[in-house]
Amino acid sequence: MHTVEDFMEATSFVERRGNRELTQIDQLLLNYHRTSYRSVRKEIQSLMDIVNACLGFLYKKPQNHKVSAVIELHYEAIIRVEHLVNQRVTWDSPYATKRGWGRVKEAIPILFKGANSQTRTLRPDYWQEALIKDHFALRRDPSDPFECWKKTDAVQENHNDWDYIEWVRNHYLPKLISDGKTQELFLRFFNNVKYLDRHKRGEKQLHIKNGVFYNSLGELFHTGTMQTNAEGPGWGIYVRDPANNIYAHSHKVHAFHHSSFLFGAPVNSAGEIAIRLGQLIGVTNKSGHYQPEFSHFLGMLDYLHSQGVVLSGVAACASPSRHDQEFYDADEVRRTRGILGTRKLKKVRAL
Questions:
Q1: Alpha carbons 10 and 299: distance in angstroms, whole number
Q2: Looking at the structure, do residues 275 and 207 belong to the same domain, yes or no?
Q3: Phi/psi at 334 (nearest 5 deg)?
Q4: Residue 93 placed within a domain
Q5: Which H helix or E strand runs over 299?
Q6: Structure pTM?
Q7: What is the structure's pLDDT at 160?
Q8: Which residues contact 162 (CB under 8 A, 6 or more apart)?
Q9: Rounded to an integer, what distance in angstroms lies between the CA atom of residue 311 and that of residue 300?
Q10: How far apart are CA 198 and CA 121, in angstroms?
């Protein structure tokens, strides 16, 4: 990268007085070289500020040999951004010869490890969350990378052997950067869905003793400070893994989902849960990432019953959709095995 001294010398022919764009580049370049970046995000932000300032100058000045230093600085900053972003996409696929969903499925066996007739695997739409270590959330806009990759004309774009990771590194990211889509770049790579390691997962685990819920510290569990996108305040999201361990936490769109607990691995049940000072008061079957079936919900109710949890009077919603939120008595739903019941209950909140 140019130093500010080199840049000012190379552009000394340009009058700086009143030239806001050029003096802005001077200051941004000076700040960049003076800062010791501990965060990749902050360095990329500084670089993209330089890129945009260069573009602002070039839009106002004729692009001839007299502004070559600005063009070179713009190029240097983009190359540095590409390098930093690609460091976050470090997984090199050994499945380059595979095609379509086959190459994706083989590349992420964790999503299917332990799957059986009782479990629910992550919906294919969300597989991209597990494809990259610093993964990004599914965002349903025209430039969603996973959707773009699936629709890619391999022959026309000359990367028929690229798997998803290679395509992101070699095509999608460079295009985002060259198009100046700074905001989208940051949405993709710095507002990520969080995945928990074994230690962090243990902190979210619930323990049931004599029908009462406790957190990992042995305290009565309470969802009063939590919230979910569907049910709102007083609820948390939960998953039950194949070993019947239950994990719960607050839901945050594009940041913490049902997939966060187990790294996208199969679950026995998934939904939302409301617990007031250790006592279950509400439970649902709603998970966009897993879309559990009614059998998975019944499995959750059966397990809770086996652990002594009182289900009578608990508001239960078996629908996997947020648009069909009718609540019935959980014990009646469990006993009727498929008939939702006649005892309708109001939605509750553990506030």
A1: 71
A2: yes
A3: -65, -40
A4: no
A5: helix 294-306
A6: 0.69
A7: 53
A8: 96, 154, 170, 171
A9: 11
A10: 19
